[in-house]
Amino acid sequence: MKDALKRLIPARFRKDRTVIPVVRLAGAIMAGGSRGRPMLNLASVAPALEKAFTFKGAPVVAISVNSPGGSPVQSRQIFERIRLLAEENHKRVLIFVEDVAASGGYMIALAGDEIFVDPTSVVGSIGVVSGGFGFTGLIEKLGIERRVYTSGENKVMLDPFQPEKERDITFLKSLQSEIHEVFIDMVKERRGARLADDPELFSGLFWSGKRGLALGLVDGIGDMRKTLKDRYGDHVELKLISGPTTLVGRKVPGVVLSGERIAAGLAAGLAEQAEERALWSRYGL
């Protein structure tokens, strides 16, 4: 009878339970996002993070990361929000990597006080990449004449419909170098003496979770449930925190529940979908 009555009490109020809020961040990191597509950006993940870090009585916040990267700005903003909330609410943060936490995904993972991976996870890719296409030959073959009028000599820098200019490439590489330095500084600040002295560490290479542990990029190998049970006992209970919902009950993209699939993009989101697919395929996913 006593056990039956205890089950009627919400788990978070049971004294024999340690309830830990869990936020799952999955998808490519991009500003905006099409309807139904789980893009990661600060706007889409902030509500769930706020809710998780204000969860009363929880000793830590657990965050699952599964992202091939994307926008360095959004990656850094998510990182900063996690750290700010952790400090304001005096919570430790445990990050658990699923398939991949690379490039911007690894930047987000750096927000963890500890980072855990599967031995087959992919981590790293501490670098900056820009990509595009050149259409100069194509428009000539099609007999298309492009007309562009600007005020400012650099307004059409890196225009895909014009031949590449060495000056433009040099400028882009200098910009990439500055962003890369910010990323490197974040890794050194967060990982410190745990990092291995390896010349390839900041080269943009990526590694398995097992190798990432040897390099000091992560702290341990283990899945979320087992790791938390080992630390907080068999009575630990994981509480998945989701973001806000729309008027029809659909969750806002960016914070997704296990098993949810990326919906097919509409015509307006085809370019976005192709970019996302390219990010995942770089890591064999």
Question: Tell me, what is the CATH class?
Answer: Alpha Beta
Number of domains: 1
Oligomer: single chain
Assign an overall shape.
elongated
Structure description:
The protein is α/β, with parallel strands linked by helices. The protein has a single domain, classed as 2-enoyl-CoA Hydratase, Chain A, domain 1, CATH 3.90.226. It has helices spanning 2-8, 42-53, 72-89, 104-109, 136-141, 166-191, 209-215, 224-232, 270-281; strands at residues 18-26, 60-67, 92-102, 114-117, 122-124, 206-208, 220-221, 236-240. β2, α3 and β3 form a beta-alpha-beta unit. α2 (42-53) packs parallel to α3. The model is unreliable at 246-250 and 256-268 (pLDDT under 50).
Task: Looking at this protein, list some descriptive labels.
285 residues; alpha/beta; 2-enoyl-CoA Hydratase, Chain A, domain 1; elongated
